Amino acid sequence: MRKSWVAAVAAGLLAIGTDPAAAILKKDTSKLTPHEIEVRAKPISNFSRGKTDAVLNGRLAWRGGLVLTSFSEYFGGWSGLRLEADGKRFVAISDAGLWMTGKLAYDERERPKALKETRIGPLLALNGKPLHRKRDRDAEALALASGALSKGTAYVAFEQNDRIGIFDVSDKGLGAPRAYIQMPDEKRRMRLDGIEALTVLKGGPRKGTLVGFTENPLRGDKAQRGWIWIKGVPRGFTMSGVGDFSITDAASLEDGSVLLLERRFRWLEGLRIRLRHIAAEAIRPGAEVTGELLLEADLSHEIDNLEGLAVSRGAHGETVITMISDDNFNRFLQRTVLLQFTLKERETADADSALSDAEK
Predict the structure, then answer these.
(1) Domain that residue 150 falls in
(2) Mean of the pLDDT values across residues 339-344?
């Protein structure tokens, strides 16, 4: 018990970036060339380590998960994730300045089973060469801008040297950035943890628009900021509902609403994560946004330092939510886990709840 508590504390410290070892353990990718790697996957049967998943909102159902490992010294630090619409092809980015591509395979019950055709490579500078400085390599968020993961463009947000680039993306990985977009005026007040979450709205009144969120409040603020890029210009709003959690990623649903992944560490309670749903109409310049909690979990569940969030469709058209964790390259104390849930439509969730009550 004591060992697991110590591990939880150390994992929490790394998760919130207070341990300098988190930076030391990151590998130098400046001389890395793209290549294939083997990733091993161990199934996670149940989300809860106990007898109940009572933390799940009625709109969420557990699908399955994986513990991912690799002999590659570059595997880890995954901070952003995107899946193709069918949930099979994926792209992930690491805060060590890496990308990873491949396919996510499923078993006969549609549970995640393995990562296949996996490749990694370095994120590049405008000149087409790998990023040399550590402060330039800290990639934290990924969003598909246009096209598909097999051939399209993607936004990548970096912290420390705060910027958002537009990159070509394909089966071969991410190319050099085409350009960098306009940053908010508040950039000067960003800490080392700047824009941590990005998504492009898939529907609603602002379909196709980029939205970004800070991990923590800016200096002098009490709440996280968000921005929506209208005609290329970032216009701000406030996240009043997150409280003392940090925002780690975002993903748009097809109606233009947004899911937010959140994380918190406390000495007495350890690590906690939350998933929040924000209505499409709530995301607008000048708004004060709260949203609805769909999930809250602690270390009695199969969580780790979850930083990547993606949305796709299952074989029957259902909405699938996928999360991936950042192990900070600290394999002794932390894990890379991939978790999947099904998001039910509100009407279906209400009907299931009513049926459950009738059976009691």
Answers:
(1) 2-359
(2) 96
